[in-house]
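Section 5: illustrative case.
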C-alpha cells in the first residue's frame, strides 16, 4: 500500500510539473471622458490608445464586461456593411474593433462600439486570442 501511495505521489508531482502556465489576464479599460483605452496584461500597463466611442444618441454601454466572442473579419449587418476588423464582442452587438476612420479617433464618433486603429485592434485581438476570452475583462466608464 505504501509503495502504491508513493507511486501516486510521484505521478501527481510529474503531472503538476507539466501543467501549462495559466494564461495572462487582459484588462481593457476604456475612458469615455478621455476617449482612451488602457490595456493591462497581468496588472501591468502594456498599451494606451486613442479610441472613438458612441456619439450622442448612440451611447457606448458602460460597465464591466467579459469578452464574449471574437471575429477577425466581421462586417456590420446593421450599419451599411461597415468593416469591423478584429472585433471583440462584449455586450450583444457591441464590440471593440478596428476602424479605418482613424481621423475621428480621440472623439465620440461611433454607433456605440469602441473603435481603435486597425493596428491597435489587431494587437488587442491577438492578446485576447492568445490568452482566452475567460481571461479578458473590459471596463468602460
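Designed sequence:
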Amino acid at each position: 500500500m505504501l509503495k502504491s501511495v508513493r507511486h501516486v505521489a510521484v505521478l501527481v508531482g510529474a503531472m503538476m510539473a507539466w501543467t501549462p502556465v495559466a494564461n495572462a489576464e487582459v484588462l481593457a479599460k476604456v475612458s469615455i471622458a478621455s476617449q482612451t483605452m488602457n490595456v493591462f496584461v497581468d496588472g501591468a500597463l502594456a498599451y494606451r490608445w486613442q479610441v472613438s466611442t458612441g456619439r450622442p444618441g448612440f451611447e457606448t454601454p458602460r460597465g464591466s464586461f467579459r469578452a464574449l466572442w471574437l471575429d477577425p473579419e466581421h462586417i456590420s449587418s446593421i450599419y451599411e456593411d461597415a468593416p469591423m476588423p478584429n472585433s471583440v464582442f462584449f455586450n450583444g452587438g457591441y464590440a471593440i474593433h478596428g476602424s479605418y476612420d482613424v481621423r475621428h479617433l480621440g472623439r465620440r464618433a461611433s454607433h456605440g462600439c469602441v473603435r481603435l486603429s486597425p493596428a491597435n485592434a489587431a494587437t488587442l485581438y491577438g492578446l485576447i486570442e492568445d490568452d482566452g476570452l475567460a481571461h479578458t475583462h473590459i471596463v468602460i466608464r
